[in-house]
UniProtKB/TrEMBL annotation:
Stored InterPro entries: CbiX-like (IPR002762), Sirohydro_Cobaltochel/CbiX (IPR050963)
Name of the molecule in the record: Sirohydrochlorin ferrochelatase
Molecular function terms from GO: lyase activity; metal ion binding
Keyword annotations from UniProtKB, A to Z: Lyase, Metal-binding
UniProt cross-references to PANTHER family, sorted A to Z: SIROHYDROCHLORIN FERROCHELATASE, CHLOROPLASTIC
Keyword Lyase assigned: yes
Length: 256
């Protein structure tokens, strides 16, 4: 059997605390083989190519790639697919050329509405809620202005919102995005008759959760702590889950 390894790819940040949270979570992932975390940008010496070379230098011949992104609607997923040679005709503009890779690659799913991610959303919402029957949950994601990508964002958020509403008995649940920017209008409309619980769908706290979201909601009535997916023990469990799903998928694939 070929030696297997895992390449986790996150966006990256200039803030060391952001990178540390990702590294701590990935350090808890249980996998029978080497695991390397790389970043699209802003983390020197830990690019995607650095990660590929680190795994191949350890003899990895079959590589499972886990995109540590909230939604499959992120344009970064297509960017990653192109750079890894898994997408020949991207619909977005990409400056770099595909990387030279010897190992066989398998791209896993983004977070989307995975049951473990939904558990985190339910937990974070429960922390905000006091009288669920009078409250509306509003999930906030980065979103995308591009057709095709926007729909994936909206589908994942809609599923998370509905399941969380049903689990907690909320009056209603919906979503808003930064792209297109409909956050202020949604909160303004919803807060007329309900207590609005605003929950950011972001991997880790940063500029958007600490600055952008509060600034766009200035003067409005809402409940918000800014807590994100990390830190949470279910994130490494999610990585293990999507890895197992991909392995199972390969086992069921017909031999060609």
């Amino acid at each position: 059997m070929k030696k297997r390894g895992v390449l986790v790819i996150a966006h990256g940040s200039s803030k060391k605390d952001w990178v540390k949270l990702v590294d701590q979570a990935m350090g808890q992932v249980q996998f029978d083989g080497p695991l390397v975390t790389s970043f699209l940008e802003m983390v020197e010496g830990r690019t995607i190519l650095d990660g590929i070379q680190a795994l191949e230098s350890q003899g990895v011949q079959e590589m499972f790639v886990v995109p540590l992104f909230v939604s499959s609607g992120s344009t970064h997923i297509e960017e990653i697919s192109y750079l890894l040679g898994l997408e020949e005709n991207p619909t977005i503009e990409i400056d770099e050329q595909p990387f030279p890779i010897q190992a066989k690659l398998h791209l896993c799913s983004a977070m989307d509405d995975h049951p473990l991610i939904n558990q985190i959303v339910i937990e974070r919402t429960r922390e905000l809620s006091t009288h669920p029957e009078t409250e509306i949950l509003l999930l906030v994601g980065h979103g995308s202005d591009l057709p095709g990508f926007q729909e994936k964002w909206e589908q994942g958020m809609a599923n998370l919102a509905l399941r969380t509403q049903q689990e907690l008995g909320l009056s209603a649940a919906s979503f808003a995005t930064m792209h297109p920017d409909n956050l202020n209008r949604r909160v303004k409309d919803l807060s007329l008759k309900h207590r609005v619980l605003v929950l950011p769908l972001f991997l880790s706290e940063g500029y958007f959760t600490r600055k952008v979201i509060p600034s766009r909601l200035e003067g409005l009535e809402y409940v918000y702590t800014g807590k994100t997916f990390l830190p949470h023990t279910l994130i490494p469990r999610w990585v293990e889950s999507v890895l197992q799903e991909k392995v199972d998928q390969l086992l069921k694939a017909p031999l060609v």
